[in-house]
Please model this.
Amino acid sequence: MSDPTMRLRGRVAAKLGDNIDTDIIYPGRYLNITDREKTPEHLFELAYPELRSQIHPGDIILAGKNFGCGSSREQATAAIKYAGVGAVIAFSFARIFFRNSINLGLPVLVSDAPRRLQPGDDLLIDLTAGTILDLATDRTYTCAPLDAKAAELLAAGGLVPYLKKRYASV
Amino acid sequence: MTLAEKILARASGRASVSPDEIVVANIDVAMSHENADLVRKSFKEIGVKRVWDPGRIVIILDHRVPAESEKTAATHKAIREFVAEQGIRNFYDVGRGGICHQVLAERGHVGPGMVVVGTDSHTTTHGAFGAFAAGIGATEMAGVWTEGRLWFKVPSTIRIEVAGEFAPFVSAKDLILYIIGKLGADGADYRAVEFDGPAVREMSVASRMVIANLSMEMGAKVAFLPVDEKLAAWLRDAGRDITPGPDYEPDPDAKYERVLHIDLAKDVPEPQIACPHAVDNVHPVSEVAGTPVNQAVLGSCTNGRLEDLEAAARIIAGRTVHPRTRLIVIPASQRIYLEAIRLGYLRTLVEAGAIVNAPGCGPCVGVHQGIIAAGEACISSTNRNFIGRMGSKDSTVYLGSPAVVAASAVAGEIVHPAAIAGRVEEAEA
Model:
């Protein structure tokens, strides 16, 4: 039985290409914004200004390889997460972006599914099983399994809740 | 074992480790810059009162120095209050340090065999000192401040051996741009990269830092350069005594994912330029020569060191910056700034029409002190040329070596430095 909290359903809001860098996701000039809730205002602002208004809570973003390459800026993950995006599915992720996402509790899935999926598709993702179901076609795609440690952090909702629990009594 | 495996094994208390294993490693140095404020917020959310070891945390303000806005001033103030509260002694305030990676190294915080994490992607720079040094995010750093350890997936390693001699006006920057162009922006994603070979051992420590720094732009988790007598001498000046030896070398039977051989004369015969808008969009300078530039930037954690300022001063001496071009020079640290004053490099550059900024990141990250307008082009010795990186989304950034930046500033367009500095033989004499 899959853990129901590790399942999510959403609509594909955008399909992006390869090497979407952190400056595209969140420009460096806004790095002095440290309230995570305010970061979505600048999501994709310079390169894809039209995209922000098309992203709604629960939506899913698709991308090619090396998504999130470049800076270690956590605002890039925060801007996606706090825009309400349910998950990012990409061929591959840059490692710091990937870890930031796990640490902030944003599901990131490595899969070839973006090859076939399109904006508007309605998806059901099972993070525990590592599957993506296209509800319109009933076709299932698989994801690379998460490392045990990453899965544990994601299940906890991110690193802060994970450590908060561990150090609650300190 | 490779160097990455050796260091992670030691730091996690194991006899040996292999790629893809997950280990929990003790952290030797944890560095942050202005984003220490973001780390601080996550740290407070976790709810622990004291950081694990204030002596192992280093905070260096560099991204917006001196504060360019009231918001940044408040951030700086919050960081000062936090370091005082936590007893963090290794804090480099405005005017006391410079760019984080330069300061961390020159003040002797890093040495071979260490595990270093920094909330900056270019933390890979410290592989030039034989450290396992990786960039991490702010919340992850809050975890390090809490526990003093971090989980890593043991990376597989790519080994790159470089032989031959640099042609005149070709430098470490050109070599690493060539490699990034060859491997691609994700060519080393999740991997460690070991650089070695006679040409690498011949390089100055400053040049090795360029290689390690830019390895990030092909996705490397960590990079390693040789730990030799040259490095030991450099570290002694920084106040750290080390003895090169097998602990800091990969084992002879280390297993590599792949091994690349580069011959400088054959593969990198001329300066290389990363063209808009990707660092792996690399072309020989001859293919982009003649592109007009409105701004030239010499500086950053990649190329703001003394040898970089010297290379630029030699080319610019007795010449002037082209009327259509602005030359911005940013020494990487206060120490480099002072040395460049003492040696006359800055005088030469200022006399030619350059403006000198305070040591820091400034225009490289597009926040202040040299932002470019729509339609403008910039030749820069920095590390990224992404859309809007240095200003308008409709501007373009070309990345090149300090010599190319200096020569292009004089020409008003991208040029091979030999075109400005006269005949190659003269320059060598």
